[in-house]
Amino acid sequence: MRQHHQIVDGDVTTINVVETVEDIEPFLRFVEERNILGVDSETTGLDIYSTTHRLRVAQFGDHTTAWVVPVERGSAFVEATKTALLSTDRLVIQNASYDLQVFDRHLGVKMEELWPKVTDTKILAHLVDPRGKQEGGVGHSLEDLTRQYVDAEVASNVKSLMGSLAKTAKTTKGEVFAAIDYDDPMYQLYAGMDSILAARLLGKLTKLVPGVSNKLIKYEHKLAEVCAIMERTGFVLDVEYATMLSEKLHCDELDYVWKAGQMGCENVNSTEQVADVLESRGVAITGKTPTGRRKVDKVLLERLVDDGDEFAHAVVEAKKARKWRTTWVDGFLRQADSAGRCHASIQPLRARTARMSITGIPAQTLPASDNLVRNCFVAEHGHSICSVDYQAQELRVLAALSGDQTMQRAFKNGDDLHQITAAASGVDRKIGKMTNFLTVYGGGARNLSQQANIPLDLARRVIAGFDKAYPKVKPYSKKLQHDAQMRGEITTPSGRVLPVDKERPYAALNYMVQSTARDVTCAGLIRLHEQGFTPYLRLPIHDEILVSIPEDKAQWGSKKIAEIMSSNFKGVFMETEAKVGDRSWGSLYE
Predict the structure, then answer these.
(1) pLDDT, average across residues 257-261
(2) pTM higher than 0.85
(3) Got the DSSP string for 512-546?
(4) Which residues, in sequence order, are bridge partners of residue 362?
(5) The pLDDT value given to residue 224
(6) Distance of alpha carbon 137 from alpha carbon 126, whole angstroms
């Protein structure tokens, strides 16, 4: 057994490296003597469900001592790791969703057995400060948290070891985790330290979670469990369709690139070349980039397309075909597992407001109302794809939070809120709808003027009409802004503390509505889990849940899910709507 020592916040810590079967006994004795342990894993990469992914090492530790177990060296080490996971009363993990899925897949230890005794330090850190580093926050990575709360020197010197090893091996940081030998002392130190740091962070962060947010700890862990199960389940990829679509998009790209070339542009991705051709065709380019170059952006090109410009159409379509193929379709084909499933990364606590994000299957950023890419994904054989979403969720939340009776009455009676807003200012419904959502997003008259393409004076009258129609919204917004300016933060009804930049107090209303709407959706997800619907859940998409239900039960099942997801929030009914499609996700968009 090899040992490494490291000073952490003034304490000498010891990392015990299991090398032989004989080292297992003292490791298990260490585990047996403790009821709470920091836990981590080292794998060959982040894509848990790829055919080449392996679990290499498992680590267990307390504040001063860690054990590193080489799972990759055989069954005795595998069994010791499983024993440690199942016998320990409490587990502390940084980003538990990842490690628990790793243990589930490679050790056969089901997440459902471990989640109830897990505390995720990443969840605690988000409740302490939800801001990312780019927003002025601490950040939520283990390195960031270690630097802020444990030991800055360890964060800089130990957490950077894999980057140093990658440089030495002349490979990337992503690849070094698979290539490095287990016996490398820097690798052993890096691995073992993570479990010690997780154990230390527990005590630091638990004390810093605002008292009003304590009730969110259990809630966020349950939500993380539901999302991790959805990740594990995955979404069936129609490989044949995706392959055909990739080929079609490639042909489309080549065709439009050729057409653009015939009009004098060799490279549609060169702004200068595109600008030259546009000006030669009589287009006046007035916009400039920050560096003084001619500005050829999406707005200009789409306006030209609407005017029937063939060259602009070729450029737009060539770029679109390439993006859709390389960013989405080919990505789906690369990430599909051996069973033809893609496993999205669902991050339930991503933004400052706790709004969820999805990568891998970018459901939140796919083209609106387009089924071409969505047709890549299908329900199981004999199932139908169903969608259940909240109706005007953020506006309903605004009605509930502000207590505005006109808005609440409109929802109760089924009146058209967008038309009410429009009528209050004598504009059409489209502008009324823009005004409603701009208010939710913290926009004002200038934003409305630009988006609706109306004079600024008219935009101001429309905003004034909104304020008159819904008299409690503006005072509520002003109260939030006052709180933000006085305290630098606001607190949601769920107890989530949201920092608000004092120079941007107008963002307080948007943060409050967005975060509260997120909690409405997530509470619905947890209710579905508690009532046994988790095996049918595929993706959460903002205020929508995508599900796969047996075809003969699809109508009943989707209505039942919609019923469970709906709720009453501060006297306002959070109404849901269910849609039943065919087998493909895209069928919901036809």
Answers:
(1) 96
(2) yes
(3) HHHHHHHHHHHHHHHHHHHTT-GGGEEEEETTEEE
(4) none
(5) 98
(6) 10
